[in-house]
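Table S2 (continued). Query chain:
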Amino acid sequence: MLAAVFSLVGCAVQAILLVFLLAPLDVLKDAHPFSAFTAEQSQDLALTFLKLHAQGYTVSMLLFGSYNILIGYLIVRSTFLPRILGVLLTISGVCYQIDNFAAFLSPSFQARLEPYILVPGAAELLLALWLVVVGVNVERWKEQANRAGASQC
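Corresponding output:
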């Protein structure tokens, strides 16, 4: 449930952030409400909106990294998907967290770190590929569901 909350909140944050991508278009066109601004002030305001979007996107990626860590943990605990996928997804989530905290604390360091730290993000592709090609082990899924149902009785 916690993973679902992180995912949903991250999606909501990204949906709200779309406003910050659209706002520069209104500011930079010849809109009447912004006619009191000089061209330079309008450009500065548009850039501010874009920077706010970038910072908000970093927050949403922190939520996504938390989601990856939790889903990776669940896959490791499950018996119907390969544990290595869970381990790789957890590592991917930790790398997202490191990358995004570096973006807030030291953007210049983060810019040098990013190409290397996002490589484990391929774990998400591996999980999707595994689910499309192989799927889950249905027998183990049912065993685990029966054990969970028996333990609740």
